[in-house]
Design brief:
With 77 residues, the protein is mainly alpha-helical. It has 4 helices and no strands. Helix 1 packs across helix 2 and helix 3 packs antiparallel against helix 4.
Length: 77
């Protein structure tokens, strides 16, 4: 299956973030770089980061985990 344009753009952003933020970018997991991108995009707003995390878990059908994240969201409102 061909990779979507959205995924290609995201991969490019992740690669760029690795090279900008880490001394050994090839040894950094994509999730670490993506986490930095999300954190910077939301200007370190933990509630918005949690809401994004919730959406990602929900999309992946991690419904039990979503309940825990929802409790964290509610506690931070």
């Amino acid at each position: 299956m061909p990779i979507s344009l959205t995924n290609q753009a995201l991969e490019a952003l992740i690669k760029k973030q690795k090279y900008e933020s880490f001394t050994n970018p090839s040894q950094v997991d994509d999730s670490n770089a993506l986490g930095l991108l999300i954190s910077h995009y939301f200007e370190w707003d933990g509630l918005r980061i949690l809401e994004t995390f919730y959406s990602a878990l929900e999309d992946a059908n991690f419904h039990t985990e979503c309940k825990e994240v929802q409790r964290m969201i509610d506690a931070n409102k």
